Amino acid sequence: MKKLFEKTIKITEQDAKSHICIDFFVPDGYQKLVIDTSYSPKYEYDMARCKAFVQKCYINADREVDLDLLPTSSYLPLANHVSWSIDCPDGYIGTKHLSKPFQKHTISAEGASEGFLPTPIRSGKWSVTASINSIVTPWAEITIKVEGYR
Amino acid sequence: MIAWHCIELHCHTNESDGDMTPTRLVDRASERGYEAIALTDHNTISGVEQAVEYGASRGLVVVKGIEWTTFWGHIVVTGGGSKLDWRTITPNNIDDCIAYAQEVGDMVTLAHPHRLGWPLCSCCHNDFDIERWQNIDAIEVWSHFNPHRDKASEQAIAQWQDLLCQGYRISALYGYDWHEPDLTPPIYAHTYLGCREVATRSIVEAVKEGRTYVSTGLRLSVTLTVLGKTYTVGDTAEQGKGKLQLSITPDGNYYHIDGVEVRGNKIIGDDWCVVEPCDMSGGEWDVDVKGKFLRVELVGSVNGQEGLVAVTSPIWLDGAIA
To answer: pLDDT at residue B164 above 50?
Structure first.
């Protein structure tokens, strides 16, 4: 096993609804990639921030709500949510859409972890795309680690 | 020959955020009595082949699909033709993306358009400003749990009714949005499709032609007789004095079927609505068939909770946009 790549990026509310593509190079001779993706923090507990977001949510849905009557347990804590896609040198091979903040993705010709198609590990430019579905904290860090197996 | 089948067109597995593997989903769908399902994981088709193959071994048809899970809403694309990279979808090109899905023969459904969205449910509310509604085959007028009394259902039906009044031929679907095994499910619903056979192309065709209704486990027979000809849901009828006939059969596969009651029949057109008394024995009513369409909503209760218990797609009338 060899660590091929590691990067941490800070994201903010400005990154909501954006795709952040992170390229990395895979040399010759690898049979399997293990890609760890994570983001932190996962949750926002600040009551005032959460209430403001939930109010916006109801307004966007054209619904009335009195947040003083809505049990806070029905919406607290609010969560960040990032989906992860992977591209090999030949193109897109899938997405993992899951709320867990720590995920491990495995790619090889023989098989792939959930969300991805089995793909041979060709040398060249690969990429991981972080799709920022939700960021409710003022900022968060996303981290990608790639390990190659010969 | 068209027959009506219980088919669930919105299912997830652990290939995205569901709890079930593709094989477990197929097993649960068989146990539930579905005659076919569509696997529509969020932004991936990685589980489809396994589900299709295992379904074939269990006698369950699995239709290939995907749920485009974008920042601005969710759209279910069913049929297996579309190869679009979901990351390319934006509010500016959504109509072109939908047109592409149509060109490759897929069926396009607006998923849970009025569910609360970000940040309570990741981008679940539909925020797209769709212009070419003629390319939308169906809307999930009901979704997930307690659809019979949900505010999102009420809003979705209102939007659908408005589009029907504009002349768009859009079908009504229920989306279970199935994520977990749900051995003892809360109140949910079924979609019934009028298909020539239980196979992908016939299922897609049924939705595109409007042969659909949703209910809390009630199998319906809806016929409209006008000028000596008889029509059913999805047909195009002539206008005139007509007779609407409705029969109701409880579906034993529906988990809460013993708790379902019918109290009234709302017969709805584009600018008119009549409410007739009705119970589980159905009935027949004289109707003045006019306008763009005629459809039926049944009012009742499930486990004592009042609400709608069935919504049919329209019988189209001459003059609606194809």
So the answer is: yes
